[in-house]
From TrEMBL:
Tree of life domain: Bacteria
Protein's UniProt name: Indole-3-glycerol phosphate synthase
Originating species: Aristaeella lactis
Length: 260
């Protein structure tokens, strides 16, 4: 079993366990009572002229192990905001990324930036959770679902008023994303099945993304030159995690990456 399948399985188990505390019906009611979310804020942050920065909060990852041992996530979130991040991506997956819904909520309270709930979505329950924890957007990984399921999840996000970042890795997945109606498409430079990173992947696939879609280049961004390359290919946004999480001064590192 590859790691992605393992993460999807864990996600399913996790969601099942959580439903023992808050049932699917209860959670749906909570989400409904809140009214529509502010997915628009995520969308317009990515649409700003020039490349936008989605800065990630993650303590660990299955490919790198522990990335940030002391993990001062609130300080990091504030540093991101102060240094001009456009959005924050916050991992909530507990086993491999050592994230949690509580971390997400605390960051949500602290900063005003639009936030992406980064998790392995395998059921609508998790989308309702995203709405209830105050997310502006949720992650949908194409390789975890078929096109019909993706279309249904996109519709559910629409009902909740949250945006969806639809993550792809190759041409076929981009086709599925477009045909299911994705508005925001991410191309991951990292292959989640074997963790190999090919920084050219997002650039190579750039022209497969229809012009009306928002295009996010994900993973493996290390230097201002990398960001420049993504500007050149017309990426609407870059999703950056490890480089910022390992930085001694995340605000300075973000500023230097943003410099044109
Ligand atoms: O740390 P990096 O290489 O900058 O990558 C960030 C982000 O793209 C990566 O964390 C990611 C991309 N897609 C995901 C799906 C699930 C978990 C994590 C991810």
């Amino acid at each position: 079993m590859n790691i992605l399948d393992k993460l999807a399985d864990l996600s399913r188990e996790w969601a099942k366990r959580e439903q023992e505390t808050v049932s699917a019906e209860e959670l749906r009611e909570q989400a409904k009572a809140l009214g529509k979310g502010n997915g628009e804020a995520f969308l317009s942050a990515l649409k700003k002229p020039g490349i936008s920065f989605i800065c990630e909060i993650k303590k660990a990852s299955p490919s790198k192990g522990l990335i940030s041992p002391d993990f001062p996530y609130l300080k990091i979130a504030e540093a991101y905001e102060q240094a001009g991040a456009d959005c924050i991506s916050c991992l909530t997956e507990p086993e491999y990324f050592l994230g949690s819904d509580d971390i997400f909520r605390e960051v949500r309270e602290k900063v005003n930036l639009p936030m992406l709930r980064k998790d392995f979505t395998v059921c609508e329950y998790q989308l309702d959770q995203a709405r209830v924890m105050g997310a502006n957007a949720a992650l949908l990984i194409v390789s975890l679902m078929d096109e019909r399921t993706l279309a249904a999840y996109l519709e559910h996000c629409e009902e909740l008023g949250i945006a969806a970042l639809v993550e792809t890795h190759d041409e076929e997945e981009i086709r599925t994303a477009v045909s299911a109606g994705a508005k925001i498409i991410g191309v991951n430079n990292r292959n989640l099945k074997d963790f190999s990173v090919d920084f050219g992947n997002a650039a190579r696939l750039r022209d497969r993304i229809p012009p009306e879609c928002i295009y996010v280049a994900e993973s493996g961004v290390r230097t201002p030159e990398d960001v420049q390359r993504l500007r050149q290919i017309g990426a609407d946004a870059a999703l950056i995690g490890e480089t910022l999480m390992r930085a001694e001064d995340p605000a300075e590192t973000l500023k230097s990456l943003r410099r044109q």
